[in-house]
Amino acid sequence: MRRIRWQVAAVATLGLALVLEALPSVLHWLRVGRRQQRRRPPRREVLFFPSQVTCTEALLQAPGEGLSGPPAGCPCSLPHGESSLSRLLSALLAARVSLELCLFAFSSPQLGRAVQLLHKRGVRIRVITDCDYMALNGSQIGLLRKAGIQVRHDQDLGYMHHKFAIVDKKVLITGSLNWTTQAIQNNRENVLIMEDEEYVRLFLEEFERIWEEFNPTKYTFFPQKKQSH
């Protein structure tokens, strides 16, 4: 009887030792599995325009500015629901740290309000645009500058024709869409929203290159004064 008890105890001890030996590996793979479950897939979204006209007020209200809660609380007569424009606004308004904009034409009031709202929230915003189109009636560029947002523009004969945005240096928004009401409501356009480190890096490098090239200290609109000797 004692021999059987000793054998049972030996087997139990051996089993416990094996369990303890394997425990670190098991815990490691459990942690890995949990991280993988928590890690959401990278964002991939395609928007097509023209966009359905919908109310965007619920998205564009700053805290304490009236509307809050569900869109159903808005008294306007526009339909309430998701549209390509509302999805584009949501992608922009997700910014928490930085927003780089490189845009040929920017006259959409809704997109302009979204950028100003981010600026009020403390998001660092930089804008690159085309010198000819920034001067047209309805352009949002003057309003952005007045709000204190940094803007740089070209001064050469070719157009600054890019149309992209980078959100928090993680999400790229690019496509054929000019940020104008005409393009949003009437044109056949596309926008790609993607979370991809390599593509974001390439577009961010292009942004930084142009940002430096368009440094106002390098502008030559006015002739340099001759220095007296």
Automatic annotation (TrEMBL):
Pfam hit, one: PLDc_2
Source superkingdom: Eukaryota
Keyword Lipid metabolism belongs to the record: yes
Protein's UniProt keywords contain Metal-binding: yes
Any one annotated GO CC term: mitochondrial outer membrane
InterPro entries per UniProt: PLD-like_dom, PLD_domain, PLipase_D/transphosphatidylase
One GO BP: lipid catabolic process
One Gene Ontology term of the molecular function aspect: RNA endonuclease activity producing 5'-phosphomonoesters, hydrolytic mechanism
Membrane topology: Single-pass membrane protein
PROSITE patterns recorded: PLD
Domain PLD phosphodiesterase as annotated: residue spans: 156-183
Assembly: Homodimer. Interacts with MOV10L1. Interacts with MIGA1 and MIGA2; possibly facilitating homodimer formation. Interacts with GK2.
Protein family membership: Belongs to the phospholipase D family. MitoPLD/Zucchini subfamily.
PANTHER family xrefs: CARDIOLIPIN HYDROLASE (PTHR43856), MITOCHONDRIAL CARDIOLIPIN HYDROLASE (PTHR43856:SF1)
This protein's name: Mitochondrial cardiolipin hydrolase
Organism: Ursus americanus (American black bear)
Name of the gene this protein is made from: PLD6
